[in-house]
Write a structure and sequence with these properties.
Elements (H helix, E strand, L loop, with lengths): L1 H16 L9 H12 L2 H4 L2 H8 L3 H25 L7 H8 L1 H30 L8 H18 L1 H31 L3 E2 L2 E2 L14 H7 L1 H6 L7 H4 L6 H30 L11 H9 L4 H32 L5 H6 L9 H20 L2 H13 L1 H22 L14 H16 L4 H30 L15
Length: 483
């Protein structure tokens, strides 16, 4: 009997040894994946609202948040480079914070990206109606999902190439805005609010709405960076990761800061911050005043691309995360999802995630808009927990190294450890406190706390049920075959 069990374990081990991702992502793919994943509608459509909250000091808010994100990425990078065989950063949360924390963090991250895809697919349908007013929203959503699922199912390099060009379009739009702003300032271009000038940056004072407006802006500013941690999902599929990952991690946050700061400085130089529209895209205002009468169509194309990019990133992330969560699992669902195709892509996990997203699109038409907005807000707020878990895992990793007397010769270490990690946690806690001062964000914060507590209770009950009714392993001969 013991011999049979050993044979079964050996068989499963041999199968799992083949379940490794291909390393098809190049350096340019990795850099543009994270860059494109963070630059989206938060900047193109939401910049006006954050400018109205903080005034010119919004630039400082983005700078401080960018520094925090850089340190977060350095912590994540050191974890990733410590074990390049890990499928995702959730593996490190499991290793250093335990099964319960990894369960909660993993499924929370999966649901977060499902809701992001749900929001972006719905938005894509609305954007298409700009050109085709009578086209049902769900048609655009399903067609886009079908195309992206096909691309993601082929090879990981197909995903990387698609995301590369999606990101290029957004970056070109931002560069065009910055160049337009520089030109308008140089010629003192007349606008409906006066003349383009760098003096507009301090119109009404740098902290125009005081400390309250400055701190309240951090909620939207922080969530503009959501997605930067996606590098943690690409490590096991990156060619030459020891060279590519440090380069990408060091450059991505700095480039994002430059793009955000550059575009915001351009916007507030062209218009006094009070004149920037808080409800519509400030990009439309700029392009219209440059003389591009089709500004609305240009921005509509850019935000449509941004929505497709976000959905593409969502499929990639949810597929890899579901695979990571079910890999080596004992249940039927886990055995079915935790395998790769012959192209070394988690096709089954991708298909399941796509079905959930597609169903959620239809549900979006059945539930009131404010309910959908609430679900999206809760998911976004949960990123505070995800990022915090990464940092705590890094602290535990470093403390274990120090306790064991291990000294690494790697040049890619977290700068100023442990104070840099404590700074990140303090920053995230500050944003959590800021969420208490607005009704909508307070409700989202309470909802996210309820979600995390429900997951923890669910994991506890699952463990108790498993302990009382152990799963009899039949070898899983059929379930572990590649697609």
């Amino acid at each position: 009997m013991n011999f049979n069990k050993g044979a079964i374990k050996m068989k499963k081990s041999q199968v799992n040894e083949n379940q490794e991702f291909s390393r098809g992502l190049q350096s340019r793919h990795v850099q543009l994946i994270a860059l494109g994943g963070t630059i989206g509608t938060g900047l193109f459509l939401g910049a006006g609202q954050s400018i109205h909250l903080a005034g010119p000091s919004i630039v400082l808010a983005y700078l401080v948040t960018g520094i925090m994100c850089f340190l977060l990425m350095r912590a994540l990078g050191e974890l990733l480079l410590s074990d390049l065989n890990a499928h995702s950063y959730i593996d490190f949360i499991q290793r250093y914070l335990g099964d319960n924390m990894s369960f909660v963090a993993g499924w929370t991250y999966w649901v977060c990206w499902i809701t992001i895809a749900m929001a972006e697919i719905t938005a894509a349908g609305q954007y298409m109606q700009f050109w085709f007013p009578h086209l049902p929203q769900w048609v655009t959503g399903l067609v886009l999902l079908g195309i992206l699922l096909t691309l993601n199912s082929v090879t990981v390099s197909a995903f990387g190439e698609t995301e590369f060009w999606f990101a290029i379009i957004k970056i070109v739009a931002i560069i065009a805005l910055i160049l337009a702003g520089a030109y308008m300032v140089a010629v003192h271009y007349p606008t409906p609010a006066g003349h383009a000038s760098v003096t507009n940056l301090v119109s009404g004072g740098f902290f125009a709405n005081g400390a309250k407006g400055f701190f309240l802006s951090f909620q939207m500013v922080l969530f503009s960076f959501v997605g930067i941690e996606m590098v943690g999902m690409t490590a096991s599929e990156t060619a030459n990761p020891k060279k590519v990952l440090p380069k990408a991690i060091n450059e991505i946050p700095l480039r994002i800061i430059l793009f955000y700061l550059g575009s915001l400085l351009a916007l507030m130089s062209i218009y006094p911050w009070q004149a920037v529209s808080p409800t519509s895209s400030p990009f439309v205002q700029v392009f219209k005043n440059v003389g591009i009468q089709s500004a609305a169509a240009v921005i509509n194309f850019v935000v449509l691309t941004a929505a497709a990019s976000a959905c593409n990133s969502s499929l990639f992330t949810t597929g890899r995360m579901l695979f990571s969560l079910t890999y080596r699992g004992e249940g039927k669902f886990a055995k079915h999802m935790g395998v790769l195709s012959h192209a070394q892509v988690p096709v089954r996990a991708l298909r399941f995630s796509t079905v959930v997203i597609a169903v959620s699109v239809f549900l979006n038409f059945l539930i009131p808009g404010h309910v959908f907005a609430f679900v999206s807000s809760v998911a976004t707020t949960c990123f505070l927990f995800i990022w915090g878990a990464i940092v705590v895992a890094h602290i535990k990793y470093k403390k274990q190294q120090l306790a064991a007397g291990v000294t690494t010769k790697s040049s890619f270490k977290m700068p100023f450890f442990p104070w840099s990690d404590y700074f990140i946690l303090a920053f995230l806690a500050m944003v959590g406190i800021v969420l208490l001062f607005r009704v909508d964000t307070l409700i989202a914060l309470l909802g996210s706390i309820f979600w995390l507590a429900a997951l923890s209770v669910g994991k506890y009950l699952k463990d108790r049920r498993t302990a009382s009714h152990p799963v009899v392993d039949d070898g899983g001969a059929d379930d572990t075959k590649e697609i």
